[in-house]
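Practice problem: predict the structure.
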Amino acid sequence: MACWGLIGPSQRCLTIMPKSWKYDLDIAKFSGQIEQDPSNFRAYKERGNVYFRKREFDRAIADYTRAIELNPDYFLAYNNRGNVYMQKASYRQAIADYDRAIELKPENGMPYNNRGFAFLLMGDLDRAETDIRRSLDLNPANIYALNSMAEVHAAKGDAAGACRWLKQAIEKGYNNWSYIQTSQTYDAVRTADCFIEIMRNKKPPHTYYRPPMHHSKKRPRQ
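Answer:
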């Protein structure tokens, strides 16, 4: 799946991954905001984002859920909670959250891509491709959706299609080579000449994306 980046102010490309102390400082900051204003649903969402990056998934879910309780129409909290459920392989719960996010903001392509990736991991390739294409219709430059489309074609055993979409993702900036090298979603096409060529010609990444929150826990993850 592909953000599988977090949606919101915390979505950034980093030159290095933050250390644990940075997470703790951020948690303290947002906890302080919540203490000052317990109705601050955005602070709950932001703290949930940090817990996600720390891989404290139950705490992340609790914060996103509290944000939703405070603001039932908070699109970002539904999308990001769905991403955490994806990490826990709770795909149906993730899809339910993406459904609500799409209902709230049908013009935003990210939850379509996220839901499509959930369908991919469940083996429902037709629904996966439909959602990911919709995501690309809304944002043709979404590198996560381009990569997700490559994975759909890989799952279908279509090496040429997978390579074509993967090249587009790379040309537009996708550079999570560790994920491409290790994700089971590409296993069916690893011996294809075009895939071998892509990996042979890969360029070293200059930046690292935060864990893409539209992907399975097997990704270095949005």
